[in-house]
Every structure is written in structure tokens, then in C-alpha cells.
Amino acid sequence: MEWLNYHHLFYFWTVARAGSIARASEELRLAQPTISNQLKTLEANLGVKLLERQGRRLVLTDVGRTVLRYADDIFRTGRELQRAVKGLPTGQRLRLVVGVADVIPKRMAALLLQPAVDAHPDLTLVCREGPLPQLLAALALHELDVVIADVPAPEDVKVKAFSHRLGDCGTSFLAARPLAHLRKGFPRSLQAAPMLLPSEGTALRRGLDAWLERTGVRPVVAGEFDDSALMQAFGARGLGVFAAPRVLEEDIRSQLEVGVIGRAEDVREAYHAITVERRLRHPAVVTLAEAARDAIFGAPQA
Predict the structure, then answer these.
(1) What CATH number is attached to the domain comprising 65?
(2) Strand order in 94-101's β-sheet?
(3) Are residues 254 and 279 both part of a single domain?
(4) Is the distance from CB of 186 to CB of 173 less than 8 angstroms?
(5) Contact (CB, 8 A) for 72 and 92
(6) pLDDT score recorded for residue 29
(7) Given this model, what pLDDT does residue 99 score?
(8) DSSP letters of 76-120?
(9) Number of domain units in the chain
(10) How is residue 131 annotated by DSSP?
């Protein structure tokens, strides 16, 4: 069995945090050649390049970023061990930094993340929102622990990432009371009826367009929205029928006082947790993935 030299890892960790061998040399009070040799030995033992020069700067390689992430965990755990042995509180809260793709409904993001919050009372939850390519870039730099998206990581994005399917659900169509009559004869009742749609290019919009094509129904598009919460707000005001994930149906009905017009189980919305690891490691991410598969998407729907 090959053993990792933690002294070498510590020198690498210090250099990566300090930004240069010169600063690390001052912090460690060691000669620069000594640190350089230790880094070379670590790279040789791992068989990978961890740092490379770009002009006068020393930057981490992709593998180096991964090793740094592990080193952060290792030395943080070491500090906690020392405090625990001394009988002192560790003072460390579990931190989860999540990137939420901007097409994910806020209600869905909250539903997926809530089990992690409930299971880990010491959790500090940090949420970032943005386009999927931007979030994947941040994930590659280890600025995020996980990205929640409605599609797997695209193959054409040059980021080493693994997609973990959380589950999928059908689609509910809801509307305010003035449009309640559309419940009768659904989905044919949607012919020429006002409808609110998510913006083009989203997975849900593609699914809805395909479903409308299959059913031969042509509603009047009364609005298109990037933000699902805004779409639902206008729907609650009677502007048109809107679609939402089936698992959010009861929450939306109670919060917005709208009714179900109909359901389409063949319009499926899928959700994925994207990480840089093939196997989920972060305890909060493991919790949310298990809850999604077992309790949210795996639970029978009325």
C-alpha cells in the first residue's frame, strides 16, 4: 500500500494558499529550494503535475485544484481533531456552496435543499444562481460544491464533471379561478386559451412545445418568462395557464390560491446534481440526493 507523505502535502497546501513559493517560504521559515524539492517529490509520487508557471505566476492545474480541495478537508479535519482531543468545541460549521441553474424554479431549489438543512443543524448554506456554463466553470475552480440543474453537464463543456440524477416528475397545469372552466375537456380546452410559457431554450419549454405538438393544441401565448416565480405570479393574477413541476403542485396551489387545470405525466422534468466527483462525498450533498430519490421524486403522487 502506498502512503501519502502529509509533510509534502502540507507544503503544497501552503504554497497554493500563499500564491507563491516565496511567500510560503516566509510562512514556513524554510528555504525556497527545500519547498520546491518537496513539491517535485509530491508530484512524482502522485504522477501528476499540480502547479505550473504562467509567466511569473504559479497557478494550479486542474488536478492541483482537486488535490487542494482534499488538502483543505484533511487539514481542517486535523485541526478539529486537535480541538476535540483537548475537549474544546471544534467551532467548525459544515459549509455547502450550491450553484443553482437560473432555469430551476426557486420553489424546486428550496425543496431539494431543505432535507440537507434539516439533517445538518450546523450547516451554513450558500446559494449562487446563474447560467449553467458559468456555474460549471465555478465548479471546476472548486468555488462550488455542487450544481443543481435541469440537464446533465453538457459534453461540449470542457469541465470534468459528473452528473448525478436526482429524479424526474410530470407536469401540472394551473390557473386562477377565472380560468377554472378550462379543467373540463383538458387538454383540448387549452385550444386558443391564454397560456404562460417558460423562455425558449429551457428543458421544460422544449418538453411543452413537443407535448402541444403531439396533442395538436394551439394555445395563445400570453407571456414568456425567464423567471418561473414571475410567471406563476402573473398566472395567479389570471393572465393565463402555467405549467409547474408535479411535485410542487400542492405548494403552489396553497400559496397562490390557484387550481389544477390538468396534468401531463409524459412532460417530464428531470433534475441533476453535478459535482467534480464521480462519487458524492459532501455529507449535505449525499443527504439531498438520497432525499430527492427516496422522498421527493420516489414518493407516490396523488
Answers:
(1) 1.10.10.10
(2) 123-130, 94-101, 146-149, 259-275, 162-175, 241-245, 194-198, 220-225
(3) no
(4) yes
(5) no
(6) 85
(7) 97
(8) HHHHHHHHHHTT------EEEEEEEETTS-HHHHHHHHHHHHHH-
(9) 3
(10) -
